[in-house]
Automatic annotation (TrEMBL):
GO terms for molecular function: (R)-2-hydroxyglutarate dehydrogenase activity; FAD binding; metal ion binding. InterPro entries: FAD-bd_oxidored_4_C, FAD-bd_PCMH, FAD-bd_PCMH-like_sf, FAD-bd_PCMH_sub1, FAD-bd_PCMH_sub2, FAD-linked_Oxase-like_C, FAD-oxidored/transferase_4, Oxid_FAD_bind_N. Homodimer. This is D-2-hydroxyglutarate dehydrogenase. Its EC number is 1.1.99.39. It comes from Thalassolituus oleivorans MIL-1. Gene3D superfamilies: 3.30.465.10, 3.30.70.2190, 3.30.70.2740, Uridine Diphospho-n-acetylenolpyruvylglucosamine Reductase, domain 2, Vanillyl-alcohol Oxidase, Chain A, domain 4.
Length: 467
């Protein structure tokens, strides 16, 4: 632990970033000391707002000298407590490192500070006639540094992949205080270990990302959305296989009827059609010409004939497409009032149906009073299991009971060789369950890597893995 008094700590931090860039007021400590999880109460000692890589480096060197613990803070939209400061840590907020620069039209790359908001990059790309495809519900507040540190996925992974697929180069400050410029934005760089990939998904435990060069691509044309009502979950996989056999999809999502009913009940968006269905599939594709629309309708009609689809609707405008997307994208915000216990799990796509059925059977059998909400990125095998807290049950008791659920769920994940965290990261909430996805040997190597980059354990200690 640091031997600095609080007053001396603030003085030294202020000397690095300026007195106006260090906060210790109660509101700031509460706001910047947590993410979207509600399990761990925040208790940071100070919030610091650097503006340059050099300032971040000086803070890290100070942390090494004084045995400080540092926690990175971006948009604080994480769901695994990876950005929670619950033990007196100094929080490093990247809000002021939000510049976009060095756009290269030939390479289709752009340099971004760690604090650039996802939507900010998306808008910039659109202004250049290009496209940044990594997208999710928190795009309006999540920051690139956090996205990269958790290798964020989202709704278009089936076509465009994860965040790591769009990172051309990184500037990082390691736990030792070294500044590394990784990969130099090259497409081909076959010169040994690609250390860039260690920091992508590393949750700030090896070092802090301060700048990233991101790749852009061509903008899709006339994105069209199709929502289908499906009688049973297994039929969704038949629909996916059939559409993928003839079309390139940009998204393939699913959600349960229970999930949709909660969104529709808010009154902001209507149900897609009157025909009741147990599950819904949302498909998105580029309709560059009338042939694409005709092909989609032919496949839809075939799926209806096979009994895989009960009804469907296709967007006729950008506004209608946006409203259909809201049926899926508004689920997380809508169910938040029930204090959901979330699990973000994945298996290879072909194993999804038996995997989901086995989990649902266990949860409904053991906890019949819990309401289960399913949705997710079915096209890449990522399921979001949400268990809603009954109104008459205390939050503490609910989370205790759900901890038992997680053990059963993760035993099934292990059985199917899946992941306990598909895209939300590990942080604090998934750390106890990492062994269900990673072998003992892998965990030992992860600890060894941590010690190389951060020997004094100052960078986001306690997250992802314990030394």
């Amino acid at each position: 632990m640091t031997t600095l008094t609080q007053e001396a700590l603030i003085e030294q931090l202020s000397a690095i970033v300026g007195t106006d860039k260090v906060r210790t007021d109660a509101d700031s400590l509460e706001t910047f000391g947590k993410d979207w999880t509600k399990i761990y109460p925040p208790k940071p000692s100070a919030i610091v707002f650097p503006k340059t890589t050099e300032q971040v480096q000086k803070i890290v060197l100070l942390a090494n000298e004084q045995s400080l613990s540092l926690v990175p803070s971006g948009g604080r939209t994480g769901l695994s407590a990876g950005a929670v400061a619950a033990n007196g840590e100094v929080v490093i907020s990247f809000d002021y490192m939000n510049q976009i620069s060095e756009f290269n039209a030939i390479d289709r790359t752009v340099k971004c500070g760690a604090g650039v908001v996802t939507e900010q990059l998306q808008v910039f790309a659109e202004e250049q006639g290009l496209f940044y495809p990594v997208d999710f519900a928190s795009a309006g507040s999540s920051q690139l540094g956090g996205n990269i540190s958790t290798n964020a996925g989202g709704i278009k992974v089936i076509r465009y992949g994860m965040t790591r697929d769009w990172v051309a180069g990184l500037t990082v400050v390691t736990g030792k205080g070294d500044v590394l410029n990784l990969n130099k934005d090259l497409v081909k760089n076959n010169t040994g270990y690609d250390m860039r990939q260690l920091f992508i998904g590393g949750e700030g435990t090896l070092g802090f990302i301060t700048e990233a060069t991101m790749r852009l691509t061509r903008a899709p044309k006339n994105l069209t959305v199709l929502v289908l009502g499906v009688p049973e979950f297994d039929a969704i996989m038949s629909v996916l296989n059939t559409f993928q056999g003839r079309m390139d999809l940009t998204a393939f999502e699913f959600f349960s009827d229970k999930a949709m009913r909660k969104v529709v009940a808010r009154g902001d968006v209507p149900a897609p059609f009157e025909t009741p269905a147990e599950y819904y599939a949302l498909l998105e594709f580029e309709a560059e010409n009338e042939d694409h629309i005709n092909t989609a309708m032919e496949i839809f009609e075939y799926c209806v004939e096979q009994g895989w689809v009960l009804d469907g609707v296709m967007s006729q405008s950008e506004t209608q497409a946006a409203n259909l997307w809201r049926l899926r994208e508004d689920i997380s915000e809508t169910i938040s009032e029930w204090t959901p216990y979330k699990n973000d799990i994945s298996v290879v796509v072909s194993k999804v149906p038996p995997f989901l059925h086995e989990i649902e059977e266990v949860v409904t059998r053991e906890y019949p009073d819990f309401e289960i909400i399913w949705f997710g990125h079915i096209g890449d095998g990522n399921l979001h299991l949400n268990i809603l807290k009954p109104d008459d049950l205390a939050k503490e008791v609910f989370f205790q009971r759900c901890a038992k659920v997680s053990t059963w769920v993760f035993e099934i994940v292990e059985k199917y060789a899946g992941s306990v965290s598909a895209e939300h990261g590990v942080g604090l909430t998934k750390k106890p369950y990492l062994e269900y996805t990673r072998s003992k040997e892998e965990l030992d190597y992860m600890r060894a890597v941590k010690l190389v980059f951060d020997p004094k354990n100052v960078m986001n200690p306690g997250k992802l893995i314990d030394l």
